[in-house]
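The following block was generated as part of the benchmark described in Methods. Ligand: glutathione.
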Amino acid sequence: MKIYGSIVSRASRNAWAAEETGTDYEVVPLDFRKAEHKAPAFLAINPAGKMPALVDGDVVMSESLAINLYIAQTYGKGSLWPAGAKDQARCLQWSMWAGAELEPVAYGRLREVLFKKESERDQSVLDDLAEKAKPLVELIAQALKSGQFLCGGAFTVADLNASCVVEYLVRSGFELSPWPAVDAWYKACTARPGYQKVQDMRAAAIKAAA
Ligand SMILES: N[C@@H](CCC(=O)N[C@@H](CS)C(=O)NCC(=O)O)C(=O)O
């Protein structure tokens, strides 16, 4: 399985999913600065010119959260991909919610922080997005009333896909502490060895590029 993209991009989500399943995978790095994601070789894999993309045999696909659903269904049965239509549907629900509802808000905040100097940031944009994030985080809190994870007692791709988007909120300085169950859930997700290993890969890539 080949994951195309810089490990500091959303490709890290897919590396995390692959780590969780123990599947052999290779990250094929693409350099943003050289616009390798816009080069013909990569456009042949993902015509959108965005990282990540996945190639696994004759499966060629894009969209990081959908790639994680593929990895979960193909290599993570009984772990990332739970048994039973009800929990599987919940994995789809949380993944679509993470991409459609949470990501625009979370990435909006991260973009403001990541790509602008402190003096250039628009605090009203950050505040507005923080207000929009609150009811979304509250939805996670409500779901966690029935278990430690989003599909009950075990970590699944629902948690992986939701927490990797919550990560953008956290990295933008959004505090989860007013929602202790969400805070504990996020800490449990990101303490997993697979996440930690990918964080180490990210840190090494950032150091190498400096
Ligand atoms: N919804 C897509 C977003 C992909 C995306 O925007 N990737 C960024 C890197 S994390 C990218 O390639 N940006 C370059 C561009 O949009 O030209 C996904 O989840 O895979």
